[in-house]
Amino acid sequence: MEDRLFRNAMGKFATGVTVITTNVNGSIHGMTANAFMSVSLDPKLVVISIGEKASMLKHIQQSGTFTVNFLSAQQQELSMLFAGQIKENRHVTFGDLQGAPTIEGAIAQVSCEVASTYMEGDHTLFIGRVKNIHLEDGEPLLFFNGRYGALSAETTLQV
């Protein structure tokens, strides 16, 4: 199977967009990721997937912690910055969730302690034990078919 076919198929799964942050010896690091999911309610666990070539891999291994920041529909530029799509240096102001670095304006911030690590293929899966959560109102930034998007009033399901 060709890599492009696999990537195209995975792009058909609409996801939210997150920025994963961590603090290593007072230096905050971040990367855009959509490979995130909740794992368990009891105990409260989530998983993120980090590629073997990503510098974030060693940062999370060193810190033993990470924060998942769910970006709002207004934060596409931040996603692009942390994905390396914007090359120029920009100042980012980070928030703090009881010692965990956060992206201000994110609609959810979930701070975690690494509970376990699994290497599979060309990625490492970090299972995180949720330590704290902060929520904000707002619409999520979405990613589908290689493009950013947002919910609209016409497509939002009412339950």
UniProtKB/TrEMBL annotation:
EC number(s) given by UniProt: 1.5.1.-
Pfam family, one: Flavin_Reduct
GO MF annotation, one: oxidoreductase activity
Enzyme class: oxidoreductase
Protein name as it appears in the record: Flavin reductase family protein
Domain Flavin reductase like span(s) in chain numbering: 10-150
Entry keywords, A to Z: Oxidoreductase
InterPro entries: Flavin_Rdtase-like_dom, NADH-dep_flavin_reductase, Split_barrel_FMN-bd
Superkingdom in the source lineage: Bacteria
